[in-house]
Amino acid sequence: MTQGDGSSCNCSCAARLEDAMARLAAMEERLATMEKSGSGSGSDVTKPKAIAPPFTSATSVLESLPTGGVPATELPLASTRVVMQQLCFPADCGKSGVCFGGTVLSWVDICAGLASKVVARGPCVTASVDSVHFLKPVMVNSIVIVEAMVTCTFSSSMEISVSVLEESPVTGERSKCCHAYLTFVALKSLKKPDNPNPKLLPTILATNADEEAVIAGAARRREQRLAKRAEAKKNPRPDTSLKPLTHFSREMVVPDTTVMRKEASAKGSSQSMDPKISLSHLTHVVMPQNANVLGITFGGQVLSWVEQAAYLSATRLNVSGHMLTVAMDAVSFKEPTKVGDILYFTAVVTAVFKSSVEVMVSVFGEHPFEDDKDPFFVLDAFVTFVSVDDSVAPQTLQFELKPASEHEVQRMEDAKQRRQERLELRQGALTM
């Protein structure tokens, strides 16, 4: 052999190569002998395995891999249970040391979302929340236990029951804070142009009589929601939603209540006020931490902002003490919002009762990077607050509303009707 410059190689490369070639020839001869000896034996133990043809692309490789088993078509009710705990920090509470209702609702939504993914095995979004009644305030530094369970599945949606308990870190004593029913939609189960073959949700199975009652109750509530939606579509009510005015008006749109409060405090008796005095506005840009992995805003985050806007309006009628969230009526999300969207929250007091107020909050969204797009409607919510003293005991409010416009009168009449329904639902929640 010669090197690249033509000189001779004085190493043993040639000898090594000849030895390797001889061994390879011997192995080939031995393999041929083994094949001949096993050809008529009736056994394929010694036969060489057939080699599969190579894959032509990475996509083919991925498609050929196992998916981890056939998706479950049935799930026991108990297998959908998810439990999580939260510590109520001072940042979660107001001056009175009571946790904000919106914060509790955000925990409720997160836990419900976890339960929905147990069933759907894919992304889900909050579609609606039934009325929530806060039976006992969650105090600062207490432990909050949130438990969610899927009660029933339908074609693409499911109902999730969520209970919230407060636990004393000192005594371990537990008390019920609130309960909620949420409806989630599984995106993989929706038939769309980009999803022509939707994945059906598994059926929830009962293993005892109590679970059968739970599933039957979920089906009954769904029928009630559908009937209520059909009635609203058949007999539409006047549009009383609060339009976002902050980016249309050049004037201060948050009224000054200093004089009004001083007069009410001095008189010590009820004083009439224009509902517009209670107007409040909140604006938020949806950030990545406010949304799920698909960039869709968490429903619980929106409800937390709703409660903040409502609280701002309610406190305008409070001369002393604190405002405590006691209920939020059923909410339906009409349009989803995503990271980068701007959300406008407009709130106003619709009715004043002895020690409580109802606040209406309208939410509109805007895509800031799209030209000539008006804000789109997201939801209307109604939040009830009660005025309490430092010992969290109810106290009488010193204001009463005096509506002037047709919409204000309509809102007050609707508020009185909702209050009656709310009291009945609260009584039912106390007996659960």
From TrEMBL:
Pfam families to which the protein is assigned, alphabetical: 4HBT
Top-rank lineage group of the source organism: Eukaryota
GO biological process per UniProt: acyl-CoA metabolic process
Gene Ontology MF terms: long-chain fatty acyl-CoA hydrolase activity
Keyword set, alphabetical order: Hydrolase
Ranges for domain HotDog ACOT-type: 78-190, 276-391
Gene Ontology CC terms, in alphabetical order: cytosol
Matches recorded under PANTHER family: ACYL COENZYME A THIOESTER HYDROLASE, PROTEIN VDLD
Protein name listed in UniProt: HotDog ACOT-type domain-containing protein
The species this protein was found in: Tetraselmis chuii
